[in-house]
Amino acid sequence: MDIKYEPPAAMQFGINLKLIEYIPYQIRNSFVSMLSLFRQKSSSESERRKFPIDDLADRLDPSTDEKREFWQKDFGVIMTHDVDTRIGYEYGMSKFVDMERAEDLVSTFNIVAESFEYDISEDFIKSLVRDGFDFGMHGLHHDGKFAFLPVSEQRKRIEDSATRGRELGLPSLGYRAPMLHRTKLMIRHLTEAGYDWDSSFPDTDDSTIGYESTGSRTIFPFYPLFRVGEDWQQSPVLEIPVSMPQDWTLLYYYRLSEESMLRVWKKKMDYIKSKGGLAVFIIHPDPEDFGHPKYHNSYRSLLNIIKKADPEILTCSELTKRWKKKFPPPT
């Protein structure tokens, strides 16, 4: 993944001042909504990476037909939750678990290894793992600084997150970059740290600031390439692309109503079902997103839409174990 990251200078300035930590989310998200009015729409690269559907990689990949046969049903679904805040961890997670249990569904929660807002309870995590829920590491800190750090510090954050994941005894060692901030060497660092899977690359990305037009263009898991000097090397880390628009994007970047969000999700999921792919959601349990009680009915409606589509519902760990058995990673 040779990521071309072009963040605006104002973003780096705001992160350095710790605005993410100290400015209330209502102000931050309103500011993002305002900025979205001025987003680029006309570049040729952006036109080629259409939101929310771009299947170029799958049309070019000769193994796509074989991948479609992986599922026990017509297609797969993974529900993931990135737990960014204290309220998301202490309140939102439990609410999502209750709603999912009611639909006989399990999901993958991505937790911050050393959050500035919450402390991880090993007993709580292990109790959910026993009930079939899954966990990945959402970086060492959720401070927005990862992509701006020197390479040595990026590597250390990834390694320290791996250490914490192993201490928790998780079903597998997985990763999702905080704020989906990917870097050119991230996959290499994940590989060297021994991660089993990563889920940081959207299939299309029209909204992550600085990453416009960096979508992976596939709705199937794959083994990514990374550079070693002038050469390319294929990683054994399974990349699980985020193929569904996340709640934050639809709420603040596109400013959609709840009904419109459900229509977008259903449209994209119907497309993925028609192609025999994998629908990977990011729904946040945090108060600024679907973790707020006012959105809980919409989340229940989304779960109902998913169940009616009758997919094979997996966690990231389950998928990784089976995928690597069916399609062994490079050695």
Structural summary, described in words:
The chain has 331 residues and is of the alpha/beta class. It has a single domain, classed as Alpha-Beta Barrel (TIM Barrel). It contains 14 helices and ten strands. It has helices spanning 9-16, 19-22, 25-36, 44-48, 56-60, 64-68, 86-102, 122-130, 151-168, 186-193, 247-253, 258-275, 296-309, 316-326, and strands at residues 76-83, 108-111, 134-137, 174-175, 197-198, 225-228, 231-234, 238-239, 278-282, 312-314. The strands form three sheets. Strands 1, 2, 3, 9 and 10 form a five-stranded parallel beta sheet that branches. Helix 9 packs parallel to helix 10 (186-193). The longest helix is centred in the middle third of the chain and has 18 residues, at 151-168. The chain is globular, with a radius of gyration of 18 Å. The relative contact order is 0.19. The model is unreliable at 41-48 (pLDDT under 50).
